[in-house]
């Protein structure tokens, strides 16, 4: 009997127009549209192996080798139910000879190649990998452009959204919009690709992993509190975001980095502004985050005066880490500035995937002419724990058998 | 020949509904109404002596003993011109026998009894003291309730406003509103008293002076940038503030501390939210400020669960210092909590004006039952540089000759 198993990987995405607020907590329907850039799976990814077998006594999930509880009526169960329904209705009911694997229990093992301590939300890549691996197991997606899929990435994004809102955007590569939608049942609140990664392949990202003394408010409870108490959020939802979505889509289509950067920075700041306008207030950025903002703003100020153009855009999610978007040619200079103010430990080697520093630790370089050195202080080593240099990337990928996370016995190969 | 000289003092005020944004930069007309509490001059005050003399060759101003430049067409000149006009039209033109001192040059010496390093805005008390001292010199105000004044405090608030917007609120004691007004010439943008200090005399304030590594954006240029770039400010101006003004005035009239505290904290946070929604973003609070917020929020959470009531309200102006409003009976507990997380240097004696700690350095006490100790870390000594305990206070006061800052020769007694 054949083994019904598939392994896929899915990328992390970092929003430029932020998702903050749900209009439906169960279906995870947002209060506004959002837009993100998909980051390369060469550097950051969740990999998931899904297997269906009639001998499995129950459906089980292992996350980084540790078995997770599948809550009845929870997010994970809702995702699985949707995928089973798609498999049954679109394949099994139409072709009575296909095996009815939707009736079998599943074993699912998922692994993030980035440590939780990196402070990157793993729920987006995680639920996207879960969705795409089960979809592959069920024959719903093909990963072959020439072969039409039974379920499109946008349809699968509806499933991933049930697991974690921003996961829907990880079903595509490139620049991805999550449409707010208007339906109460959520079928129009899905992800669409605004532009593929090939459209603007020089878009790079530098993640500054910031040391955080304490765990902040979870985004689920934080956004709920903002919806309930912020006097400014409704204005953001109704008036600000719709205009920004149009403007940033145009900037992306025109490869207009200046407009892209201005909108991205403004929207990051506005997201943190409505978090602060919450009772009690929510703070995700700390003094280190503020210093990174000061460096990017100063670099842009100097560049604007010299060339008429901006060079970088910061954005912060629900935590203190900065993601700096910039064109490939500027990454080295930005790293040199960041490490000048945030000295790196020698025992924390910089992966340097693009060989900007010959695989060595990056060194501070003289500041650009006219750069006001005093915009930030020099912080102690460890304030920025590490730098991750990556770029725009593609959507979920099929992975080979050799990368499967389940062994021949259907159990995880590596346990926590 | 008699000496034409008057000395008055004026208080600091700290807003509960914040002023942020001008609709007219010259006349200093605000984009929204604001409301403040006047703090006691027993602890914090600006004192000003004004003298008119035909022998003075020019008008001069000394601030803390240092001569200041009086810019032509500047704020100070506009204040002086208004006061001279009032003197001339209301007194000299009507009583030809009164000396025409409005035609003489002035010597003005002003002194703040709190160090600039305390990070308290001195422009409000400073321009209020300047206005009231010249008004007293010119016979416009009387400081005697039984004797009608030639110019009411609200009329004088129009003059102080020309010097520094928030100075207009320091012309009254107690709870003071600055009406936004609608006139283009500003005659209806004035301060009125919502309630005198006797209405709610148990209202106390604890100022936590926070160490700040670097000078932030000046409020004048900061608010200008917010008006120009914040997408959220217009909503605050149009919809949020008018409702909050009504609600906080009712809370004050009802002595409803819970509502007063909720509105005060929400408005402080919203002011900092629109500052963050500015391009480039403006940050006034730092990680120490955030920790103070966390302590007050936690204390309120515990108290709410236990008694159904809040005990404290934080508010932050354009800097990292916290002002905590609370009823007199709660001040000691709040100080004990603050010094637990922000240990004070022994060389920085606490003035203890209300003898809560027998004039000694306050000591940390056990946290209230149920208080989550981990809401903030214990900071290094000096993170909060000092504590100033004060209370609600009265408006400008006449000062005796012994407190005059100008000598018999018309020159400042103390030079910087």
Automatic annotation (TrEMBL), chains A, B:
It catalyses: (R)-5-diphosphomevalonate + ATP = isopentenyl diphosphate + ADP + phosphate + CO2. One of its GO terms (molecular function) is ATP binding. GO terms for cellular component: cytosol. Residues 10-191 form the Diphosphomevalonate decarboxylase-like N-terminal domain. Its EC number is 4.1.1.33. Pathway: Isoprenoid biosynthesis; isopentenyl diphosphate biosynthesis via mevalonate pathway; isopentenyl diphosphate from (R)-mevalonate: step 3/3. NCBIfam families: mevDPdecarb. This is Diphosphomevalonate decarboxylase. The lineage of its organism: Eukaryota, Fungi, Dikarya, Basidiomycota, Agaricomycotina.
């Amino acid at each position: 009997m054949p083994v019904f198993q598939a392994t896929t990987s899915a990328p992390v995405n970092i929003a430029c127009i932020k998702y903050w607020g749900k209009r439906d907590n169960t279906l995870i329907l947002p209060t506004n549209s959002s837009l993100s850039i998909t980051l390369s799976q060469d550097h950051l990814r969740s990999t998931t192996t899904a297997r269906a077998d009639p001998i499995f006594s129950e459906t089980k999930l292992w996350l980084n080798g540790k078995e997770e509880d599948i809550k009845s009526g929870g997010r994970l169960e809702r995702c699985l139910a949707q995928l089973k329904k798609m498999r049954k209705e679109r394949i099994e009911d139409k072709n009575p000879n296909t095996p009815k694997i939707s009736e079998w229990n599943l074993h699912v093992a998922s692994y993030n190649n980035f440590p939780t301590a990196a402070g990157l939300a793993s729920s987006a890549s995680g639920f996207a990998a879960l969705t795409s691996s089960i979809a592959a197991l069920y024959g719903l997606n093909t990963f072959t452009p020439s072969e039409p899929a039974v379920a499109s990435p946008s349809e699968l994004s509806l499933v991933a959204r049930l697991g974690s809102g921003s996961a829907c955007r990880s079903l595509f590569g490139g620049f991805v919009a999550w449409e707010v939608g208007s339906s109460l049942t959520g079928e129009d609140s899905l992800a669409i690709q605004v532009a593929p990664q090939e459209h603007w392949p020089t878009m790079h990202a530098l993640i500054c992993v910031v040391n955080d003394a304490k765990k902040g408010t979870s985004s689920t409870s934080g956004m709920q509190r903002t919806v309930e108490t912020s006097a400014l959020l409704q204005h953001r939802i109704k008036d600000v975001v719709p205009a920004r979505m149009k403007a940033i889509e145009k900037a992306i289509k025109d490869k207009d980095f200046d407009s892209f950067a201005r909108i991205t920075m403004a929207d990051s700041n506005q997201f943190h502004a409505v978090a602060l306008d919450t009772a009690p207030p929510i703070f995700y950025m700390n003094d280190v985050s503020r210093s990174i903002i000061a460096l990017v703003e100063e670099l842009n100020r100097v560049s604007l005066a010299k060339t008429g153009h901006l060079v970088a855009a910061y954005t912060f999610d629900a935590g203190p880490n900065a993601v700096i978007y910039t064109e490939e040619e500027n990454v080295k200079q930005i790293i040199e500035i960041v490490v000048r103010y945030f000295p790196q430990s020698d025992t924390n080697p910089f992966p340097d995937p693009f060989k900007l520093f010959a695989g060595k630790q990056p060194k501070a370089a003289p500041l650009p002419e006219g750069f006001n050195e005093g915009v930030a202080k020099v912080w102690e080593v460890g304030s920025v724990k590490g730098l991750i240099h990556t770029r725009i990337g593609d959507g979920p990928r099929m992975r080979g058998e050799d990368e499967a996370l389940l062994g021949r016995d259907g159990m995880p190969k590596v346990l926590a």
